[in-house]
Design brief:
By secondary structure, the chain is an alpha+beta fold. The protein contains 3 helices and 4 strands, in the order βαβααββ. A 4-stranded mixed beta sheet has the order 1-2-4-3, covered by helices on one side.
Amino acid sequence: MAKIKLDLHDIFNKGGAIEGELNRVIRDAVEKRIALVEIIPGKGSGQLKKHVLRFLDRPDIKKLYHRVEKDDKNFGRVFVHFRF
């Protein structure tokens, strides 16, 4: 199964870049029909993960994927599943 991995550690303090990268990776997955996107906001204070989850909850984004899974073994990781 193909997947895309997005690590947000390098751009954690650049709000616009985060939105752009999240948009790009979701659109890439849809365009290339990739079933799984792994987003790594990191553990930190949890603010970046909340930002990612709010982004994924936007109506225009939510309609593109099947479900979101928060990794129960690693707090700093989120999986976005697509159904094609």
